[in-house]
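JOB MANIFEST
job_type = single_chain_structure
chain_count = 1
residues = 186
[input]
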Amino acid sequence: MVNRSDHLLLLVAAVLCAVVTTSCTTGKELPDRKFSEKPHVIFDAGLTSYENGNFRDAFVLWRSLAERGHAEAAFRIADMYDFAQGVSQDYGQAARWYLESAERGYGEAQFRIASRYDVGLGVGRDYLAAYKWYWLCLRSGDSSEKAKYLADIMLRTYLSVGVLSWEQIKYAERQAKAWRPKPDLH
C-alpha cells in the first residue's frame, strides 16, 4: 500500500526529473543546492526512471549526481555507456566513469576498471593498474562475491603466469595499500 509520504516523495522526484530535463534541454544551469540537499531522492528517481525504461531521464539524473561525486551514480552512468542504454555505446566514457566510481571506493567499479585495464577496453592496457584495482576490489566491503572471486582468480593468474615481475607486483600492492578513496556524495 502506498502511503501519503510515498506519494509526496514520488511527486518531488517527478518535479526534480522535469526540472533537470528542462535544464538540460534549455542549457540553463540548476543551482547546486538542488542536488546536494537530498542526493538519495535524485538517485532513486533515476532508478525509477531506469526501471521504467526511461534511460535518458535516468542518465540525466544520475549524471548530475556523478559529476558531484556520487559513486553509485557514476557506476550506473558507466554501465549505461558500456551497454548503450539511453546513450551511444562508448567504452572510453564507460571506463572514465568506472574509474571515477572506483576512486570513490565503489567495489563493483573497482572490478570493472581493473578488467578494462587488463584487456585495454576503453583505456590503454595497463597490468599494474589492473593488478592494483583487482587487489582493492578483493578487499572492498561492497564488492559482490562474484567480483571478489573473479578478482582473486585474476590476481592468482598474474602471479602464476608471470604477467608482472615480483617487483612490479610489490609496487602495485604498495600503491593499493596507500590508496584512499575520494569522498563520496551520499
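[summary]
Confidence is low (pLDDT under 50) at residues 1-36.
The CA atoms of residues 37 and 112 lie 30 Å apart.
exit_status = 0
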